[in-house]
Amino acid sequence: SLSPHRFCLYPRMHEDLVGTHPPGAHSLVAVSVGYFMEDFVDMYCNQKLHQSWELLFHHSVVIICFGVAVLLHQYVGFALVALLVEINSIFLHLRQILLMADQVHTACYRLNSIVNLGTYVVFRIATLAWMTRWLFLNRQHVPLATYAVGTVGMAIMTPMNLILFYRLLRSDFFK
């Protein structure tokens, strides 16, 4: 995982998210591509399209962007930063489980809602903002095709995450 500890062990990652990454990072990103592919197929086969189209679209973008990193053996550090977003998924999934268990009016649900929103801001919104900034500041060092994939990916993911954030706020805090 990408933590401050990893940045201390691999200080070049501060400046080079293209070619520098810790051992095992390429495998982590490759396994993540496999996970997103499996989850895509599962949703496609087992959910109604009108319920899952946003996640299917999200997964498609991630599979393409992470797939580029895996195939090129570059931008793996950038993909590691992107995986920080998934820390919030723990609380999003726990929220769904609590909803399915009809635990909406419990202290556990309330606590999870607060932690979910906090991790959403830190690990989704702030991470995506940082990634967008990094991509913009390093555009002269990134080949045009890769820059286009990254820019389109960020242009898709950022509004999707802001819309989901609004929905979470509305649902859990402004009923």
UniProtKB/TrEMBL annotation:
Residues 1-175 form the TLC domain. It is a multi-pass membrane protein. GO terms for biological process: membrane assembly; phospholipid homeostasis; plasma membrane organization; regulation of membrane lipid distribution. Its main location: membrane. Keywords: Membrane, Transmembrane, Transmembrane helix. The keyword Calcium does not apply. The chain crosses the membrane at residues 53-72, 78-94, 114-132, 144-169. GO terms for cellular component: plasma membrane. InterPro entries: TLC-dom (IPR006634), TLCD (IPR050846). It is found in: Membrane. It comes from the Eukaryota. This is TLCD2 protein. It comes from Alectura lathami (Australian brush turkey). The gene is Tlcd2.
